[in-house]
Amino acid sequence: PEPSTFAFFGGVGPWAGLSRRLAAITAGARLPHRRRADDTADRLHTPMPIGNSSAAALRVVCRSTRTLMLSSSLALAFVLTKYWHRLRRLVCARLRRSQADADAAGTATCRKRNRWLLSDLHVLRHADYLFAFKLPDLHIDHPAEPVTLQTQLGACHPEHVDPTTAFGFRLAHQLDYATSGVLCVALSKRAAKMAAACFAGRTARKCYLALVHGHVQWVQAVCERAIGLDESDERGFRMAVDGAPGKHCGPARTECALVGRGYLDDGRPASKLLLRPLTGRRHQLRVHCLHLGHGIVGDVAYTGDTAAPRMMLHAWLLKLPLAAGSVTVETSDPFLSYLHAAAPPLGTAARDNVGEA
């Protein structure tokens, strides 16, 4: 081999001399022996030639050593990569747990919390996706909670549990703890990648229903104020319009359409809105509705309303333009029994008020 064969020793430091000697030996050179203690300072032993058989054996040993080192490096890289992905999943799970604790702290501790069973789950199956109906006041995943959306999915559909994920299922997007509605669950890595591309490219269509305080005087409205951290909240939970920069912050746009006006059970005026977020900022709909002057009914964190039995925000429709064809999942209106006298069931005309149906 060429002298560069031994370049993997580094050529510097403690390996420099060995690299030069090995390169010279394989090239058939003659090397002097080291000086001995009983030799005079200017006397060297007679150089000894290196035979072809010795050089060939040395080349084989060097090749084997290089192969062994390369194999060991690849094995070490594989192990480190495996544990890095595992650590990343654990860190993400811890962050989701912290966020879920903050969500629950802003809701469940201020009013009576809804309690659910593992069997309280409705799911639609389409190809490599499950579309789950998430209930209000329900964590998506939480290590300390016996009933979450993930544990419900595991109990009702154990055949789809993926042990390589942190909690068993791959969710294409998220919903707040207090928000109900349709949620997309991917059953494979490929399906998760396709769904994530729809949300990242903003081609997925999401529509929400909300009950807000007061009688809205407009029919349609658009809010384009940026979402940032609320610096007045020491917990770091609330967001604010034009707040401080941070994670899940940035420009935001929400399209709103009036569905109807009416009154709650306690006589307070309220309006039903159809909301379409064109961006995915944290608490975007809650903050934008509050900025428009009509906070969401039951939103303890932003309006302090503890009289309502739940936060009146529901993910009503989800449309995904997948490669195999567009999929649209629509749920029923959960707020029909909460608004009286002036809020008809949601129909096609109201749906058309927000963009293209």
Indicate the topology.
Layout: H1 16-26, H2 52-105, E1 123-126, E2 129-134, H3 149-156, E3 170-171, E4 180-186, H4 189-200, E5 205-213, E6 220-223, E7 227-229, E8 239-241, E9 254-263, E10 269-277, H5 284-291, H6 300-303, E11 313-322, E12 325-330, H7 348-352
Which features does this protein show?
357 residues; alpha+beta; 10-stranded mixed beta sheet; two-stranded antiparallel sheet; 12 strands
Low-confidence stretches: 1-12, 34-48
Please state roughly what percent of the residues sit in beta strands, choosing from under 5%, 5-15%, 15-25%, 25-35%, 35-45% or over 45%: 15-25%
General shape: elongated
Largest sheet: 10 strands, mixed
Q: Over the alpha carbons, how many angstroms does the gyration radius reach?
A: 33 Å
Report the average pLDDT across residues: 80
Number of strands: 12
Separation, N- and C-terminal Cα atoms:
70 Å
Strand-pairing-aware structural class: alpha+beta
Number of helices: 7
- What letter string, H or E per element, gives the SSE order? HHEEHEEHEEEEEEHHEEH
The share of residues in helices is 25-40%
